[in-house]
Amino acid sequence: MPGPLRVLTLFSLMSVLLLAATVVVPGGAVAGQKRIGSADWWINGSGLIFAMAVCLFFSAGILLLKARRLGRLVYILGVVGFYVAGYFIELINGVAYSRDAYLYDLLFVAFQVLALSAYFFLNRRVKDFLVAY
User: Fold this and answer.
1) In whole angstroms, what is the distance from residue 133 CA to residue 73 CA?
2) What pTM was computed for the model?
3) Which of 27, 54, 60, 112 counts the highest number of beta carbons within 10 A?
4) DSSP 69
5) Mean pLDDT, to the nearest integer, of 3-16?
6) What is the rounded CA–CA span in Å between residue 12 and residue 98?
7) Considering just the CA atoms, what is the radius of gyration of the chain in Å?
8) Residue partners of 126: CB distance under 8 A and separation at least 6
9) Cα–Cα–Cα angle for 58, 70, 106, rounded to 5 degrees
10) In contact, 50 and 89? CB cutoff 8 Å
11) Which pLDDT band, with edges at 50, 70 and 90, does 39 fall under?
């Protein structure tokens, strides 16, 4: 497995720690500048949305560990899923940013998806690794 792919796989596998932190760490979660208690986090649906995003991203790491080509697409969808989940969690909890902040977030996600896509689909070492197994 190429070095950068190992790091990306590690990121996705460690995302489960973010979910564990929302359960184990006292005090709940933070959306924007607003602290959300653990009970409210799960009751209002924020925890479920976040858990779905984490599961998608974590499954990408498993697929990449198994050298499945589908892992590339799932990884990119997982990254997008985190941003979409963040947007819905902000809506659910009444946290609002300015339109400029959303525009910058959208541009950042677009560049991130573009860079990941270029690495996953154009890099020869990644292609060889995912085809070899």
Assistant:
1) 17
2) 0.86
3) 60
4) T
5) 92
6) 29
7) 16
8) 2, 5, 72, 119, 120
9) 65
10) yes
11) confident
